[in-house]
Q: What sequence folds into this?
């Protein structure tokens, strides 16, 4: 498989089913945009997504962070803790990629979070989110520019990261369900995946806030 070619029809979801339209589109986006965007453009898009998410989090009333508008689903503190935990792990994987190494397993799983979402003070969780976002941006800024300088012909031989991808897909009955699958991504594709992750959870928190308003 050529380097960066992640949209192979052989890719299946973890349940063995073929990838749905939204999953295929996500892989195509990662592959195509990674080839056309500069390091600075990738960094700018991630920074914008991080700031958008942090702006939404800043509107949350501390009294609401552990209320569940949708029974059995995550509350806002869960989401914020999840992003912090995954961003730190993903930043470490980016360091391995920039150092020319394949990151060791296990991959960053889709539901990763800590017990702190149930007890840590809200300001602590918010600061953890900001710190994790800054760490990711710092790693990409330093390592990405270095890789750009070294790029040329040998970038095609760069290491890949084995990661878990989640795409929200619409079924024929209009239900939205997550489809989970594995992918092998280079550092540019992996960085762009972090942008999508931030935007997805920005939307999730907005949805939770709306649910809290309806239920109040």
A:
């Amino acid at each position: 498989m050529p380097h960066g070619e992640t949209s192979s029809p052989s890719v299946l979801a973890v349940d063995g089913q073929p990838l749905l339209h939204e999953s295929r589109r996500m892989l195509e986006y990662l592959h195509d945009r990674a080839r056309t965007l500069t390091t600075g453009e990738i960094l700018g898009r991630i920074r914008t997504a991080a700031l958008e998410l942090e702006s939404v989090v800043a509107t949350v009333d501390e009294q609401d962070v552990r209320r569940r508008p949708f029974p059995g689903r995550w509350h806002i503190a869960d989401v914020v803790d999840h992003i912090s935990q995954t961003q730190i792990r993903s930043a470490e994987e980016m360091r391995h990629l920039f150092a020319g190494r394949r990151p060791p397993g296990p991959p960053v799983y889709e539901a990763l979070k800590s017990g702190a979402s149930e007890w840590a003070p809200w300001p602590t969780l918010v600061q953890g989110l900001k710190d994790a976002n800054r760490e990711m941006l710092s790693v990409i800024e330093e390592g990405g520019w270095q890789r750009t300088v070294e790029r040329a012909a040998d970038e095609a031989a760069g290491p890949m990261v084995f990661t878990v991808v989640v795409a929200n897909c619409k079924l024929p009955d209009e239900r939205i369900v997550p489809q989970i699958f594995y992918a092998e991504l280079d550092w540019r594709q992996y960085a762009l995946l972090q942008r999508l992750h931030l935007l997805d959870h920005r939307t999730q928190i907005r949805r939770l806030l709306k649910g809290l308003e309806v239920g109040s």
About this structure: The two ends are 53 Å apart (CA to CA). Confidence is low (pLDDT under 50) at residues 1-9. The first strand starts at residue 161 and ends at 170.
